[in-house]
Amino acid sequence: MARLTNWLLLRHRWQEGGFSLIEVLASLIIVAIAMAALVPALTLVAYRRAMSERVEVANQLAQAEVDRIRTLVDLELAASPGAFQNPVQLARLPRIGADPLDSTPPPANMDTDGGNYSIRLAQIELPGRNPEEYVIQSFRNSGGDCIDRRNNTVIVGVPCTFLMGVRVYHRFSFNQATREALPGLRTESVSANQNLANADVWLFPMASSILEINLAADLGDVCRGILATTANPTNSCDAFPVPVPSL
């Protein structure tokens, strides 16, 4: 009887001191099931975050491409109004696209310029991720003739003002082996309403825009622009006459 009493007391103290092995195993199983249920959700969150970062990078690349062309126009034409009469200089501008401009097709290959668009590649490094490659497609219309303000003439065939389109695709929009575009590659930009977890998201550019490129305005342009908004325009801008086409 004394032995049974001692055994019961020891068992009671052991139970008070912690969980049983069965309870520990049951807890581990519950935690494992909960973690397994959370993994897909956590993976989706990480994927969406990565895709959002890619869209942000693409928009930055698109803006950088626009700024590059705008700076090229300003610097080259400021130094020489007829700069783009030189075929080599003119080739630095995007190629002329389709008409209307937004009908310009997507790139067929990430390495080869098309007949009506230009291609540049950009490799971006982000913290904690392997370098990623982006394809920048740019194109323009024929634009308006350039003005030589020094000689008060119009330089026919040299564009100072034109519409420019730019699209930025991710490397995954192209076949990894052949570097050719995936079948069905689109031209409209991926939107916030699209399911970024859908595999079809790679058929869309990460960024896309069409905007106007203008040579930086001089004082005459500014003066005439201000007077155009007044009720009684004057001849105060006569010091900056409007150029006439050269024959």
Automatic annotation (TrEMBL):
The keyword Transmembrane helix applies. The keyword Membrane applies. The chain crosses the membrane at residues 20-47. Keywords: Membrane, Transmembrane, Transmembrane helix. SUPFAM superfamilies: Pili subunits. This is Type II secretion system protein. The lineage of its organism: Bacteria, Bacillati, Cyanobacteriota, Cyanophyceae, Thermostichales.
